[in-house]
Amino acid sequence: MDRVEQRLMRYAKVYSESDYYGQSGTPSAQREFDMAHLLVSELHALGIDNAFCDAHCYVYATLPATPGCEHLPAIGLIAHLDTTPDMTGNHVKPQIIHYEGGDIVLNQAENIVMEAAMFPELQKFVGQDLVCTDGTTLLGADDKAGIAIIMQAVEELLAEQAPHGKLCIGFTPDEEIGRGASNFDVAGFGADFAYTLDGGDITDYEYETFNAAMAEVQVSGFSIHPGTAKDKMKNALLMAMEFNALLPALETPGHTEGYEGFFHLQELHGKVESARMVYIIRDHSMERFLQRKATVSKAAKQMNRRYGEGTVALRVQDQYYNMYEVLKDHMEIVALAEAAMKAAGIAHPTHSPIRGGTDGCMLTYQGLLCPNLPSAGHNAHGRFEYAPVESLRTGVKTVRHLVSPALVESIVLKKEG
Ligand SMILES: [Zn+2]
Q1: Do residues 30 and 100 share a domain?
Q2: Which of 82, 134, 208, 332 is labelled catalytic?
Q3: Is 82 designated active site?
Q4: How many domains does the chain have?
Q5: What are 44-53's pLDDT values in tens digits?
Q6: Is the same domain home to 163 and 255?
Q7: Are residues 358 and 206 in contact, defined by beta-carbon separation less than 8 angstroms?
Q8: Is 391 left (phi over 0), alpha (psi -120 to 50) or beta?
């Protein structure tokens, strides 16, 4: 049988970076199929003949319920097979380093060192083996650690003929560029609820995300020679700055944390004649989210009162919503995750609000409730990414408990019954 860290290293070597500027739809990059096809062939080798990859590069597989477990809910397990374009994922050379404390030399020749002072959480892993990079690429534990954990758990369940309800496995492309859920076949997947394994530290899980909207602000000015502009010129650039000044200055990403929401100006360009700004609006609370959108509308109205109707045109579009708004009525799904983590040996599982969205939050609003479980990766999206082997193994145990009939019956069915 494989070991979970061997799986992670095998998957890490497959170049499956998604591409912001690639093909439209999914996959954004043809190379993501390499990872998808590898997973399908491994699932076939495990005896799961129904595993397949569709035209959009989604991998699906189903393990039917074992005899006597047909009454259990169908549980989905989801991870993404692309890696972020923010750091190269080509020619990944994973290595296992036994961590004795202090700095970690990832690459002697190029003098690439992971400093303990910069990453104090390394302290937790003294005496453990870490899957690391050679410092020249990312590792791709985000989210190949999630895939490795799911695959390992499936292999073990089958090898031991362990009982379980129906399990639905899904591996998705293009999560890192925000399209992971866009072509997901929720109906075909067939799960009653699911979990993404796309978190970080193995003790932390997540079921709260932002509510999210994008606001595009188009400012129309009037350009004329500055020498003869008196009482005529309307400078769109100055009006754009004035619009921004109507928003709370300290409610930006750089000044907020935890459950604090924000307005984030992420684009501003223009000339005297016209200017365009793009904001993203984020808040965990639906009530405050609506207030934030109202604040932006008020600012636009105020500008139009000052400078004439039509000076500022505002278009606000919702992007996604906090999965907790739906999950709060189904907290047994969250309770099952926490109980599985505890059964896997995590004494105090913690949960923190995600300051962003996940594929799971899109899926939740498509009808597939989907909190996020940890995948054991640290320092995602960079050369210092690593995954502790012990944490990976705890992840496998967590999934094994998550699907164990005793736990599912006592937590999920009890609530339904
Ligand atoms: Zn991820």
Answers
A1: yes
A2: 82
A3: yes
A4: 2
A5: 999 999 999 9
A6: no
A7: yes
A8: alpha
Is the pLDDT reported for residue 359 higher than 90? no
Predicted TM-score of the model (pTM):
0.90
Query: CA 399, CA 118: separation in Å to the nearest integer?
Result: 31
Cα 89 to ligand 1 centre (Å): 13
172 with 47, same domain? yes
pLDDT digits (tens, 9 = 90+) for 224-243: 999 999 999 999 999 999 99
> Is residue 129 annotated as part of the catalytic site, yes or no?
no
**Residues paired with residue 66 on neighbouring β-strands, in sequence order:** none
The string over 396-407, giving b where at least 16 C-beta atoms fall within 10 Å of a residue's C-beta and e elsewhere, is bbbbbbbbbbeb
Whether residue 358 is predicted with pLDDT greater than 90 in this model: the reply is no
Question: How much distance in Å is there from the Cα of 372 to the middle of ligand 1?
Answer: 10
284 plus 301 within the same structural domain: yes
pLDDT at position 337 over 70: yes
Q: How far is the CA of 11 from the centre of ligand 1 (A)?
A: 14
Ligand 1 centroid to 83 CA: how many Å? 7
Q: What is the pLDDT of residues 10-49, one digit of tens each?
A: 999 999 999 999 999 999 999 999 999 999 999 999 999 9
Tell me which of 134, 155, 175, 338 is the catalytic residue.
175
224 and 369 fall within a common domain: no
